Amino acid sequence: MTANLRRRKLFSRFFEILCGLAVVIALIPLAMILFYVIKEGAGAMNFDFFTKMPKPVGESGGGMANAIVGTLILIGIAALFAVPVGGICGIHLAEYPGTKFSSVVRFAADVLNGVPSIVVGIFAYGILVLPVKRFSAIAGGVALGLLMVPIVVRTTEELIRLVPGGLREGALALGATRSRAVFGVILPAALPGILTGILVALARVAGETAPLLFTAFNNRFWSTSLTQPIASLTVQVFTYAISPYDDWHRQAWAGAFLLVMIILTLSIAARLAVRRLERMNRS
Amino acid sequence: MKRSSDDRSFRIGTGAFAALVLLIVLGIAFELTRQSALSITKFGLKFWTTSTWDPVSGDFGALPFIWGTLYSSILALLLATPIALGIAIFISELSPRVLRQPLAYLTELLAAIPSIVYGLWGVFVLVPLVRKLELATPAAFKKIPLFSGPPLGVGMLAAALILAVMVIPFTSSVAREILKNVPSTQREAAYALGATRWEAIKVAIGFGKSGIIGAVMLGFGRALGETMAVTMVIGNSPQVSASLFKPQYTMAAVIANEFTEAADELYLHALIEIGLLLFIITVGVNLLSRILIWSTKRRAIAPPVVTPTPIVAEEVAA
């Protein structure tokens, strides 16, 4: 082996090790965040957290019952808006993939996906808060729904494309119309995957804070009214985190713990479902 | 023909929903412009170049926020890009097959953690660490503008660090995708010429160069619009400074902090104009990144390799 080759091999080894090191460096913050969220959050978690209302400053204890329900209501509204819009849009893109219109829409969905969530919040504020001069659960839910739409579009399109082409061709060959083929054969085959994709999208928007600050706002009291300001886990965690009280900090960690657990569970479930679908496609 | 009319109404019906997605994007642009009209007409271009932010006298200039957003995002990019590319290369080219999926999944988990959780972690874990680092900085260093400022912990450095972590999964997953799409003939040709492993990887990177730049820009777009985590650790003090240790402010953070306090219309319009600029910048950056990624992918798939037909012995004989 010449000295030159030896040098090149050494050089190659060196960069390979650097790349491995990059993976380790990225996993350190992940491990740290999960460690602190579990350490601080799990300890602060108790039954009261789920069932009690926030206590006034100075009184310890209490929970986030109103914020948990608020988040559920908000993501419910978001799903009601985003699933039909995004789902049917995704079906269109998957069924007519090559048209100019489809590429423009696909592009628009990509753009929407890249718009900062706070900007989407301003849009929801402009169309739903400003005209009635009141923060509301509806406005917050729609803001989250707008953020969900591009994710639902993409998941639906991708999963419909994963459905074996033979199924579509078989249905069409038997004389089914396009809509019968889609809703009767293709969509049911892709449904488990799409549903988990929707759950992941829900988990994603449940973790959003910025667009809620001036749409759903916050509410210290129990409220399930859609036209009133409503509390949410994320805004509550934010309020508690920047407060000076130790007890509130503990609650903030507990809220973060709950959010992370929900998201981890859903993303693992989705991963398993997609893998199953891919395996089905291969066989 | 019942069938074809059915098919047409299906196409138009689903198309209407698809058009709605398009309308939403146009609606955002329209609404942001409409709601910032007062500020746009009153301040014009001066809005982007001056630094006064005085809600009481109704005088607004957004320069410090633009500076803070660009500076923090660029710093984050400098930190995140080598790491993200290292991850992409490791997972797609070097890692043992069994580790690929789990490693990809773990790095992408970084993208799943909500911004507010990053912020919470930032406030209680990262900021104290940064403060320790600032306290340990020798006085001689403090004279350099880059390291000047009080050891508060909150400030540009903490924001850039947290942004870097948040951006890594986006850049690395797209870069990984690009590398996966590089035709294996590229690497094989390099090996055939006697390249080492790293030299072959360099060839693959060269092939996907514009796509990888696209991946980096996608991360940049994410960093520009990131709100909560940055708001919680950057210190929220509007100033144009190169210092890593000084508290500063970003466009998204000022909107998050002051939007509900904006009592008069001009104040609100000024904040929305910042949102409008943020929208324009992020859409521009994303567009460019998509085009770069898309063109690389197309190039990777498009040219079919022409294999010369093997000469069969009989043909030669004939």
Structural class of chain A: mainly alpha
Strand order of the largest sheet of chain B: 1-2
Average pLDDT of chain B works out at: 90
Report low-confidence residues of chain A grouped into runs of 5 or more. none
Integer-rounded radius of gyration of chain A: 24 Å
Largest sheet report of chain B: 2 strands, antiparallel
Mean pLDDT of chain A: 90
Give the terminus-to-terminus CA distance of chain B. 59 Å
In total, how many beta strands of chain B?
2
What oligomerization state is this entry in?
heterodimer
- Number of helix segments of chain B? 15
* Beta content of chain B: under 5%
Following the backbone from N to C, one meets helices and strands of chain B in this order, namely: HHHEEHHHHHHHHHHHH
Give the radius of gyration of chain B. Answer: 25 Å
Major sheet size, sense and barrel closure of chain A? none
Give the CA-CA distance, first to last residue of chain A.
48 Å
Number of helix segments of chain A? 10
Topology pattern of chain A, helix = H, strand = E: HHHHHHHHHH
Shape of chain B: flat
